[in-house]
Design a protein that fits this description.
The chain is mainly α and 311 residues long. It has 11 helices and no strands. Helix 5 runs antiparallel to helix 6, helix 7 crosses helix 11 and helix 9 packs antiparallel against helix 11. It is found in: Nucleus.
Length: 311
């Protein structure tokens, strides 16, 4: 008939009695020749569809066999025949691991038979694992920050020692005025201004906030334009403002009523100021820690206790 060309038949190998007696008697107590013949007959009839083969297996005459048993015996016989006949044209011999397949199905059955309580408990354990990993990352980050502070303190201590050595070399040139030179050097060191990031941060906080433009030009304009960020607001500041809006769960696009426009613009300006204050606080804490490490490096055996109110 016209569609006969699509009815492809699988090439099921056959074996002779001599081949079976010589090579295929691997486990006579488990598989006899009659059982093996019946297996290959079903494979030819049902195109190696093992589920159907297991269903059509004659248990009354050949005993009870599972799908894994049928697969294991079939692929074992095919592999032995290919090796004996030296079929180089055949594909790589497939080795079926029946024990692994049984364990896999058993595990799937246990997974399917879980109760709701067990599923919730597993989900809770997964959530706890995520929290533990997050705390671990946070500890690693703090450790890295502390290492940076310590390395900076060591570097500053080295620079301080180098300066002291330079000062001592200069003092040896004028031995008669050692005491005066030491006093002058101490005064100079005390009077030298210390470079700090705090001043720059304070100036940035003072100039923080957003100045929204007032649309009073001629022509028609939308009130929502009043809530548009000015062009002088940088991308970094806009991104920080977006994160703060998400943090406080504020709608980023409220209805443009007159009162809402004014309040929303003031709120975003205050949020930008909040971001600047957070940055200033972090910078000041870093400066305090840096000064503490410098003090402890210059004065061994002494500890500088920073009040908790300043941190």
């Amino acid at each position: 008939y016209p569609f006969a060309k699509f009815n492809k038949q699988l090439d099921i190998p056959t074996y002779t009695l001599n081949e079976y007696n010589a090579h295929l008697k691997t486990n006579p107590s488990k598989w006899t020749k009659q059982q093996t013949d019946h297996l290959f007959d079903l494979a030819k009839r049902f195109d190696v569809r093992f589920i159907i083969m297991c269903d059509r297996w004659e248990r009354a005459n050949y005993g009870i066999k599972s799908v894994e048993d049928l697969k294991e015996r079939y692929y074992e016989v095919v592999g032995i025949l290919n090796k004996v006949r030296n079929n180089a044209s055949e594909k790589k011999i497939f080795v079926f691991d029946a024990e692994h397949e049984r364990r896999r199905k058993e595990q799937l059955k246990k997974l399917f038979d879980r109760t709701t309580k067990q599923v919730e408990e597993e989900q809770m354990l997964l959530n706890e694992l995520k929290k533990i990993e997050a705390r671990k990352k946070e500890r690693e980050r703090k450790t890295q920050d502390l290492q940076k502070l310590i390395s900076q303190a060591d570097q500053q201590q080295t620079e301080h020692h180098q300066k002291e050595q330079q000062q001592q070399s200069q003092q040896t040139q004028n031995t008669s005025h050692k005491k005066q030179d030491k006093k002058l050097n101490k005064k100079k060191i005390q009077q030298q201004p210390r470079t700090s990031k705090v001043d720059s941060v304070v100036s940035a906080v003072e100039s923080a906030g957003i100045k929204f433009t007032d649309l009073r030009g001629t022509g028609v304009s939308l009130r929502s334009q009043k809530m548009k960020l000015p062009a002088n607001v940088g991308q970094k500041k806009a991104k920080a403002l977006e994160q703060v809006l998400q943090e406080f769960k504020v709608d980023p696009n409220p209805p443009p009523i007159e009162e809402i426009c004014v309040a929303f613009n003031e709120l975003r300006s205050d949020m930008v100021l909040l971001c600047e204050l957070r940055t200033a606080l972090a910078t000041c804490v870093f400066e305090l820690e840096s000064l503490k490490h410098q003090y402890e490096a210059l004065c061994p055996g002494k500890t500088l206790n920073i009040p908790a109110a300043l941190v």
